[in-house]
Amino acid sequence: MLRTNNEKFREYVKLKIERNQFIHALGFKIHTIEAGSIEGVLPFQKIHEQQNGFFHGGVIASLCDMACGYAAYSLVAEGEQVFTVEMKVSYLRKGIGDKLHAIGKVVKAGYNFHFCEAEIFAENNNEKKLIARATSTMAVVAEKVGDKYGD
């Protein structure tokens, strides 16, 4: 397990999730928060569907981004922010299933950057298939006084 810079990291990650309107609009629910990793699920809704009936690639990429980002948030000090500065998503299979299961992990935590990976599984009738993998670089930025977002 990676070392966190915040003994209350679960509460800090939950605060960041609570403030993220996009995660709520998608319906992505994070159920496991550990130091350096998160897991969550996204039940299928019509709004997630692309023209051929699969989960839209943008939805999958968004889950990768959030899984990596919240895994990175679990390691930073309170008041520090993380921002995606680079991400690559590889789509391995069609996104067909009742829900998506996302796992995000920090591979290497650094002072200025955290290097992360995400895996997305499509789940149908309790059978999971890996459909996407991503790598991501998250910048770690100290929050400036009076600036709730950092820059």
Brief overview, please?
The chain has 151 residues and is an alpha+beta fold. The protein has helices spanning 9-19, 21-26, 57-73, and strands spanning 29-34, 37-43, 80-91, 99-109, 113-124, 127-142.
Protein described:
This protein is of the alpha+beta class. Helix content is 23%, strand content 42%. It contains three helices and six strands. It has a six-stranded antiparallel beta sheet with strand order 1-2-4-5-6-3. The protein is elongated. The two termini are 29 Å apart. The relative contact order is 0.20. The model has no long low-confidence stretch (mean pLDDT 94).
Q: Give the strand line-up of the largest sheet.
A: 1-2-4-5-6-3
What is the terminal-to-terminal distance?
A: 29 Å
- By secondary-structure content and strand pairing, the structural class works out as alpha+beta
Please state roughly what percent of the residues sit in beta strands, choosing from under 5%, 5-15%, 15-25%, 25-35%, 35-45% or over 45%: 35-45%
- Distinct helical segment count: 3
* Parts with pLDDT < 50 across at least 5 consecutive residues: none
Succession of helices and strands:
HHEEHEEEE
Query: Can you tell me the overall shape?
Result: elongated
- Cα radius of gyration in angstroms: 15 Å
Number of strands: 6
- Report on the biggest sheet: 6 strands, antiparallel
Mean pLDDT: 94
Q: Roughly what percent helix? A: 10-25%
